[in-house]
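Pipeline run #58 for the internal structure catalog. This entry was flagged by the ingest filter as a single-chain record with no existing model, so it goes straight to prediction. Upstream metadata was stripped on purpose; only the residue string is passed forward. Reviewer on rotation: M.T. Logging verbosity set to normal.
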Amino acid sequence: MNVIEGNNVSKKFQLFHEKEQTLRGYFVKKFRKEGSRRVEEFWALKNLTFAVQQGEIFGIVGENGSGKSTLLKLICGILRPTEGELRINGNIAALLELGSGFHPDLTGRENIYLNASIIGLKKREIDDKFEEIVRFAELEKFIDTPVKNYSSGMFVRLGFAVAININPDIVLVDEVLAVGDEGFQKKCMEKFNQFKKESKTIIIVSHGLDTIKDLCTRAIWLDAGELKVEGPPAMVVNQYLEEVAEREEREFKARNDQIRKQSKKRWGSGEVEIRDLSFHDKSLEEKATFQTGDQLFIKLTYFADQEIPNPVFGIGFFRDDGVYCYGTNTAIDGYDVGVVKGEGEIWMECDRLVMLPGHYFLDVAVFSADGKRTYDLLHWIYSFKVSSAKLDKGVFLQEHKWHDSLSAQERTEVKEVQR
């Protein structure tokens, strides 16, 4: 049975681009013909058709501004569709902006009754649920304290506890699964698992894509207000991530091209000129974004207007905050370039990229064999981006293991494995 059905649902907002600074200007605008006002139409959702079955955990993914939160507000009745039809079968608990109905001067107790009555519960029903709400929020000692004295965590926990304990048929969750500490988050997940066993319907909007893949039974991807993909969560999330990565790659390359055109950070005598530099993955496909652990190839194209014996090519890596991460050159590595003349190229191969997530810039240079003459040096003109699922901090990833203890025998075994 479908508990939510949307048929060609669209939602339009009007964006006003005028702001009058005087009282006279306000009244002039008030009586101006409607057609002469500077108003832009913005369609947050466009012709969205979907259905959610009873007992489903339904995920919604998409970039900021794609229409995810607008859809939830339509489902819970905060907004109405501009076009199309939306049918809801069941009562809803909306975990959107937790505690938004709380009055700061009222106590936690008073706000529970106020908030629950707004949701639609009668006093007797709130009485029956009161102790459970307080216990879930872990606020027994503070329930008669004005909520303006609560910490942000206490405030959000109380809002979550009220919304989650009203026995809803449908639960809407918008980026609030990370409320409270680890213990409280675990309790929230147990509550969702309970809802799942009771065949309640849960709709989740989250940028935590692992949550979508782990919890949901089906998902959709919204892109600029339109339904892009619908299906199994892992498939939807993977396609979404692929497009986001491709988009970031295009935008990153465009920014880098603009930086190179505008940059004046270059000097040298010019006998050898660096014509271009590009980054490549293990398939030698040109890229600008990589993952920690990827294989990286750097291709440097040069031109020498005369015979130059064994020039030295060097590359230095800098993080965007100026931290010098690493530098090397062909002389340090004992690589003999030989005599160069005309156009040529040289490649630097990195078997495994150890840098942690960040934006990295390069100093690229070519020197004379004795190091006394700089033919060409480009400072921070070329850059690449690194991302990673790892949470390690710093500049580079140090491979490591943890042990409870290491006996002499175990240390010997570790050394043998390393050999």
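catalog note: The first helix runs from residue 23 to 30.
catalog note: The domain at 265-387 is CATH 2.70.50.60 (Coagulation Factor XIII; Chain A, domain 1).
status: ready for reviewer M.T.
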